[in-house]
Design goal:
mainly alpha, elongated, 74% helix
């Protein structure tokens, strides 16, 4: 899976989608965004697809 596919999958996560579109200043949503994107990159780096 490449970065674009991984991000497309992430965008299908309702909780992540809300974290980037509704009440974006909410600390819980900010944390969700950062954690989700960090996990995405870690997965890509672990699999050598970055």
């Amino acid at each position: 899976m490449d970065a674009l596919d991984a991000f497309a999958d992430l965008m299908e996560d309702t909780e992540f989608e809300r974290s980037i579109s509704v009440a974006t200043g909410d600390p819980k949503k900010v944390r969700k965004r950062f954690e989700a994107v960090q996990e995405l990159f870690e997965d890509l780096l672990d699999h050598g697809d970055a």
